[in-house]
Specification:
single chain; 283 residues; alpha+beta; seven-stranded antiparallel β-sheet; 16 strands
Length: 283
Amino acid sequence: MFAWIKSFINATALPSLQSVHEALSGPGTFLDVVVGRSAKRIVGSLELPSGVVVLMDPCSDSVVEVSGFVERRAIVVVEEFHDPVEEMRNPSFNAVLRRIELVFDPDAPVDKTRKLGALEIESARIAAADRDDWKRHRQEVGPLRELRMNARFDPDGKIRFAIMNEFGVAWRAIDLHRLVYAATRPVEQDEYVAMQRAGWLAAGNAPPVDEIYPSFGLTHVTGSTFDRMNEFRGIGFLPIGDPEGPAAFLGLSGRGEGTYEVVGQFAEDRIVRVEIRFREDSG
């Protein structure tokens, strides 16, 4: 075990796939190795039955597909930068993701490195999933029908009061730090559209010509893959669609929005690692 940790810190080698899978009891299990304020860890194992992994911004159409690996799973390794002072001061602060690496064969000697593409991130999130699992399950809608309101867009409560008065919806606080409130009863899509209109007018705005109302902090959460990934804070695995279904890796990118290179490492024309670097500095 000590030899494993030493090699992991030095980044000269990773343990064999077999030893990693024996050590990992499931998604989310990891080994932390901290050097200064930078932590490098194995997050878990991502199953890739189709032989193709998609790297993407889950909230946009930006996708880079990677194939050419023999193994049907990848070890997900991340490097994070921690700010202990900020983490103590702000409970919702997340460690900054500096680098993601998908390791298909840690024992293979790398003889070539090549750029595989450029990934455009708009939502400050990056996901990795099996291509077929993602296509098959990402459109599934969950059982929730929850109306939410970010009170930063409604500091005087006019919008919430108008919706409560017209539709009989009461509100409860679900995240006081981010000033997020939720309706106390389920709301269907057609009613949500009507609530958008009522809230928009209550805020003193004129009806838009196309009758499409901006959300202004009002959202409709269904528990879909999009909803769950959009709300996710941190680094780990989330099921795609059904809670018992296949998982995707998800993390917050280190510099938020931007375009990042996807680099592949090869051994005899077989891809053995994929890496995305978000930041090189120490802070």
